[in-house]
Write a structure and sequence with these properties.
The structure holds two protein chains of two kinds. Chain A has eight helices and 13 strands. The longest helix of chain A is centred in the first third of the chain and has 18 residues. By secondary structure, chain B is of the alpha+beta class. Classes of the chains: A alpha+beta, B alpha+beta.
Amino acid sequence: MKKFTFIPILVFLLSSCDPFHTKIEDQDLTVSYYEADTKKTNIPTPTTLNIVTWNVKFGGARIDFFFDCHGNRVLMTEAEVLDNMAGISTKIRNMDPDIIFLQEVDIDSKRSGYVDQVAYILNHTNLNYAVYAPQWLADYVPSDGIGQMNSGNAILSKYPLNNAERVALPLIEEQSTIVQYFYLRRNIITAEVSVATNDIVVLGTHTTAYSTDDTKKIQLELIKSKVAGIDASGKDFILGGDFNNVPPGTIKYCDFDDNACSEDSPYYPLPCSTLVNDLETMKIYAEYDAAIPQDLYMLNQDLYTSYTSDKNGFWNRKLDYIFTNGDFIANTGKVHQGITSGEMATMPLSDHAPISTIYQLK
Amino acid sequence: MLLRTIFILAAIFLFQVSFAQNDSTSTTESHMIWKNSTAKTLSEGRMEMGLLAPFVMGLKNNMQITVHPLAFILMPNVKLKKNWSSDPDNKWQFATEHGMAFPTPLLNFLAREGAGGVYPASQTAPPILTFQNRFIATNFYSEDHAVSFKTGIEFNLLYSQYGDFPEVELLYFYPRMASYSNPFTLDVAVGFTGAISKSFSYAADFTFYYIPNDESTTIFEFEPKVYYYIADNLRILAGIILTTGNVPHEKQDFRAIPFLDLQFTLFQKTRKK
């Protein structure tokens, strides 16, 4: 039997390693810092900050991908991505944010022609600095032909960002080990920005979309606990991101008409009976200022919807949020649903519309 | 750091080879009859296979045929090796190896939705017919040890039809598939083979690949292997492939791929004396 002892040793070595380098938490570099090639001049002592959050769908614009079931595309060419990024950058220049939270931004992925989208946006807008934390990292994802992946959350700013951190959110418990190994690892990216005399902690996040267990609830609780800690320490924070959850009191929260997936698809929407409003449980609206306050949302929900998978339809649910323990100037929050709420159509740019608001500096 | 690791491993290996040479009794007869990477071929009628290794059979006139039966359904393949030396006891032995493969069905099988989808389901693999040619010169510098010098070229006869089907841009995989979408893949190798004892033998190849793509990809592989002989007709192989190179978009500078195999001989035709 002694002769065969090297077999389990090899099996152990194989099982204990990370051959596709997907375990972000185990890697040396979990946050990357960026600077624009050419720095743009800022107002020296601003009194307000323009804050935006936007899920940019990895520069996929309105190409019909396999996961939204409207098409079967998996990979884009570099030219397609650069064309889409030009549109996203134009919209960002029009909004002229001081700080923007981006979700689903790719920096080195096969599906998006290996374009570094953070660098691209920095060099095509008035933003100067960025921090990036991966949420989906793999040398190769052997599923659906996705291949190499490096996608995540980013915060871009006109002002320097310091002390960036990636806070890991819990993985989806119900997934098998192999699926979990190659799947997304959600996070909160945090950084500190100093503007005039204000020191603000900025946090960007993107919670899970497809879990049927209570992973999303746990992730939202962890996010709330993180901002509560910052609040308790006396610091100001601005939190932006895609929470993959509709606001409390939402009338239409399931059975959306943009679903094109069949019941056997892993991307088929969850039945209404299993949907829980985790944001209601989280009670974040009660404690912090929202870009779109709850009372405004309840007056006209359609005005604040920010997502649809159907490029030929209209935004049908609100998934994107900005919160602060400071102050947003009243009635400055808006969802850039189209030309009437911005200066250009946003439907062709991503499956999410950007949300903006004005933060009052002290 | 990476090159230092490779050099240290290579140095340890070469030291062990030298040490084994001084110490061992002749075990060539028992070990060298197995398939190896020298210019020699299997004796006529001898058949070998492994759980992972291909089926190999010795033919007449110092020839050997290799077919991977598991892969054959999805990737029809065949390789023929011919030893051109007039005397099998010559210190120098020369051989050429020629092979063909049709991987298109395999690539289409891997173009699928969900898990196992190496390629997008929406894309269809082009017709690919690879042709491999290799020259091998081996010097049996002692009874139990040999060094082989090998060079080969692989190209896709239907290269012009490749189109935009994606590539797998990972070390190890890339040089083995690069000829599908590039004019050719060239390799040059030095391989050591020999016996350590009656129960153990070794093989190690140092291989350099060149692929004429936009980045002029060069890849270096070191593949040490140890065989343990359980019986005359059964051996275990353990090895590792250490590889580095400038594969397009590959994130890692270096990869180490350990492997295990169980290899055995099949029915062997007895020669008439």
